[in-house]
Amino acid sequence: MYAPIRLPTEETIAEAARILRDGGLVVFPTETVYGLGAHALDARAVARIFEVKNRPRFDPLIVHIADPAMLERLCETVPEAARRLIERFWPGPLTVVLPKRPVVPDIVTAGLPTVAVRWPSHPVAQALIRAAGIPVAAPSANPFGRLSPTRVEHLDPVLRAQVDLIIDGGPCEFGVESTIVYVTEETVTVLRLGAVPVEALEAVVGPVALPTGSRDRPMSPGQLPRHYAPHTPVYVLRPGEVPPLSGRRVGYLAFRHAPADPSFQAVEVLSPTGDLREAAARLFDCLHRLDEAGLDVIYAEPVPEVGLGRAIMDRLRRAASGGNGEVGR
Ligand code: TXA
Ligand code: MG
Fold first, then answer.
1. For a FRET experiment, which of 10, 132, 186, 224 has its CA 20 to 30 Å from that of 269?
2. pLDDT tens profile 41-64
3. At 183, which helix (H) or strand (E)?
4. 86 is in which domain, residue-wise?
5. Residue 214: count of CB within 10 angstroms of its CB
6. CATH number assigned to the domain comprising residue 303
7. 259 CA distance to ligand 2 centroid (A)?
8. Mutation test of ligand 1: which of 32, 34, 180 has the most ligand atoms closer than 8 Å to its C-beta?
9. Residue 318 within any structural domain of the chain
């Protein structure tokens, strides 16, 4: 039995809020990707998220709030640089990692002394969190390691069968996940590239440190090298590189222009005008469609690594990393 998919009417929001308060699971839209939400202060409800996603327990969740007062309930201290980032980017696609208070269950933070918090700008997400009156823990609503959903049509059927309600808010505006920063009194470190570009962060707080950590031990536990992966192997092309067409069913993910060669089985173009924001918003949707086209391999063109282009390349490289023999760099 699949969970019902409902449009975000007042009744739907009220029902979803009730489900969350009672320890159930609700899939809801945010401006980045769809989230799989549960009551963040209810450890049993949060445990269900891990089961449904098949997510390793070492990978902590983001807690979503709907007013800044909730932040003080969750976090011990908020450094000055964090306050400035929050002031500029909330509500919106920025997640801030800060020292947690004891009220946040260990399962949410995977035992870390910090908690990741975000105030989403999507009106449906805001209405839901407000109506529930509780902070909502929510990872992206995809099975662990797979592409994040940016439309309800992308939801995995197995996941759909295990949640209580799905709210359809149409396609997500940004299409890539939030940018995650770890902030101390001294430094701002980007843990995950995302919908707020590095340049925009630096305009507010000066130079930031970029994602580090070894491939096996990333600073953000969920940032594994292989992630955001379609089932079909992905290969990221070098600039100007032409993919081989060798009798296989080959798909092509173009940045601006479809390739002239007609022998590709499926082609998706991210943004004909070369707009990185549009490209990011369409990235997972294009990958989902290519993944459903029964291809042997997907070749992806690189995009310029500035602004949102960095988050796009990060997702493409992870989609390609450690795939079935084809590693894109
Ligand atoms: O845009 C988004 O952020 C979406 C929407 C639903 O809000 N959520 C999302 O959640 O992308 P998820 O679970 O797919 O990714 C959360 C990331 C993981 O990589 C996790 O390791 C990191 O946040 N994270 C969470 N808490 C952390 C902490 N205390 N320290 C470091 N990283 C943390
Ligand atoms: Mg995710």
1. 224
2. 999 999 999 999 999 999 999 999
3. strand 179-183
4. 5-205
5. 7
6. 3.40.50.11030
7. 31
8. 180
9. yes
